[in-house]
Structures are given as structure tokens and as C-alpha cells.
Amino acid sequence: MATLQLSALEKRYPNGFTALHGIDLAVEDGELVVIVGPSGCGKSTLLRTLAGLESITAGELAINARRVNDLEPAERDIAMVFQNYALYPHMSVYDNMAYGLKNRGVAKADIRRRVNATAELLDLGALLDRRPRQLSGGQRQRVAMGRAIVREPQVFLFDEPLSNLDAKLRVQMRLEIRRLQKRLGVTAVYVTHDQTEAMTLADRLVVMNAGRVEQCGTPMALYDRPATRFVAGFIGSPAMNFLPVTVRGERLELPDGGELDLATGLDDGAELTLGVRPEHLTTLPDGAAMPASAVALDTRVELIEPLGADTLAYTRLAGLDEPVVARLDGEHAVAEGQTLRLVLTGERLHLFDAEGQRLAERRCAVDVVS
Ligand code: ATP
User: Fold this and answer.
1) Mean pLDDT score of the chain, rounded to an integer?
2) Ligand 1, atom 20: nearest CA belongs to which residue?
3) Mutation choice for ligand 1 from 9, 12, 34, 44, CB with most ligand atoms inside 8 A
4) Which domains are assigned to the chain?
């Protein structure tokens, strides 16, 4: 049983740089919270602060409602799994897993029982006599996890544990981590810059930006209702399309001069950003009528990426520098250089103000999300 409570947690490095600006976050017992954000946003700093490897300069960290700010790493009952595994090369798998327990004076029979049970859990039983160099990347990663599991910690911290693995193995290990974490029922905080990994693993996702929490919620909540343009652009792959638009009465003027019926309640001339995900742009079958309150985006296809089930079309829209990306059905015949009419409806759109904040739905006469 473990809960984590971060209250106005701040980290200022000795050189005066503030890497964390007052983080508030509560992690429930047995929950897997994934911290995601671009390079340098403070993810590793946050994790290291939780582990006790970095001091906390203001605010409070509590485990099970007990303040642990000043506890040494070893006293926090937290285990950390790193991206570089940090295995001892001269020790066998067994000794790597047993090392921490030996150091803490755990009885030999108890160590044997715990290491064997964990090896079983991780399918490492046949590899216990091997050295790390005699293992594959995925097996090493499992040993690194095993070393954390045998300690039976209250909280697991993962710092980009899969970033050294190839794409296929990453997917496999991702599933394995998720399965193990749920089976063991441990509380876990997982850092990654890979948003697909973040979406698929998390019970709750925390998006960080420049040392602050931008938004926290379930992966689908962040996908469906990103609170800021930053979150909207970070969650989802390929990224959401952003179109600068201007309020014209009850309509929005698009970059190519088209107009979409969408009352925002804002003053005429207000400049907004309209966000639409590639999967929410559709095409019209030949001869079909445009749906009511929809607008056509007449684009030219610049690049096609066939992914099998889907095809990504990178298109050019008049008046916009960035390409508009549409995710089309893989069966859809489309060629580079052709014109493509994409349909934008009033549904599943996202509107952001000049500061990048989501426009509150109550300000819109039309519900701008589905
Ligand atoms: P990445 O995904 O690249 O690992 P991150 O989100 O984990 O990035 P951090 O490593 O936490 O980012 O770094 C956050 C900020 O703090 C960065 O601007 C970094 O330069 C700065 N920083 C990290 N360590 C120190 C330090 N010891 N002293 C001063 N500044 C530091």
C-alpha cells in the first residue's frame, strides 16, 4: 500500500536554475502515473527528487501521508529502474538481483526465495547464472526490473526504461511492465518522452512543460479535451493540425478564406487556433453532398505515408505554411500531387485562445468537442 503526495514541490539547482516550479500531484495506491514531456521539461529531475537522489528545495513530498523530504533514498522504500539498466557486469543475474538484499542484511534463505520467485515471474529462471553481457537487451531490462521487484518496494520509479530497446521489444516490454505492475499492485511513476508509450501504459498521464504540470488526467481525457495547445500538440501521433482562424460573427474564417459555422461568443476579429486531429479530417466520396455546417479544405497532397491500415496524407492548404495531415483509410487511393478535398465538420474540433488555453465550451454556442 502506498500513496504519493507532491505539494508545491520545487527544485532549484545550486546554479540557481529552477527545474520544477511547484508541482502538485497525488498518486493513488496501485496507480501507474506516467510523466511525459519534451526534453528538458524536468521529468528526470522530478523522478530523482522522488527517489531522494536530488534534494527538494521547497514544498513537500509525502509517502503514505508521511513527509519524506529529508529521508535518504534507502529509507524511502522506493526502487528505481533506469534506461541504462545499471547492472553489475561482473556479477551473475542471480547476484545482480540479490545484491541489494545482501547489502541490507536479509537472510540468505529469504534472498534465495525472493530471487527465485521474481526470476520465475519474469521468466529469468534459466538465465540466473549468466553475466549481463550474455543477455539480450530485453533480458537485461527484465533483470533490472527483477532487481527492483525483489526489494518489494512501496513505490517503483521508471526512468525511460525502454529507450535502449528496439521498437518491437519496446512494445513487448511495455505490455510486460503494465501486466507486472498490475499483478504486483504497486504504485508506480514512469517517465518517458515517448507519447505512445505514455498513452498505452498510464492510468493517468501528467504532461509537463518547462518545469510545470500542463495537464493531468486519463490518456483519453487528455486526447479528447486537451487543456492547452501544448498538450494538444504533444498527445497524439501524428500531431494535431493547428489552423490560425479569425472570428467573423458566428463563423470562423480559415487560412484559405473558407468559413466554418461555429459561434464562439467572442468578439469579431478575435484570433484563435483551431485544432483538428488527422483522424478527424474526412474525405467525401465522389458526388456526395457536403454535410451541413461542414467546410471543405481543398488541399494538394505533398507526401503520402502508407502505414498499412491507414495512410497519412501530408497536404498543402492555401494560406498555411505547415502541412495539414489527414489519416485516411489504407484502402483510400491517393497520390502525391493530386488535389484532395478534406472535410472539416463542427465536431471534434478544439479551439485555443491566443495564450494557448482551451476555449471553454460554455463560450461556444456549439459544443466544439464530440
Ligand atoms: P530529457 O528528456 O532530455 O531527459 P528531462 O525532462 O528529464 O529531459 P531534466 O533532466 O529533468 O529534463 O532537466 C530539466 C532541466 O534542468 C533542464 O533544463 C536541465 O538542463 C536542468 N538541469 C538538470 N540537471 C541540472 C543540474 N544538476 N544543475 C542545473 N540544471 C540542471
Assistant:
1) 90
2) 40
3) 44
4) 4-234 (3.40.50.300), 241-369 (2.40.50.140)
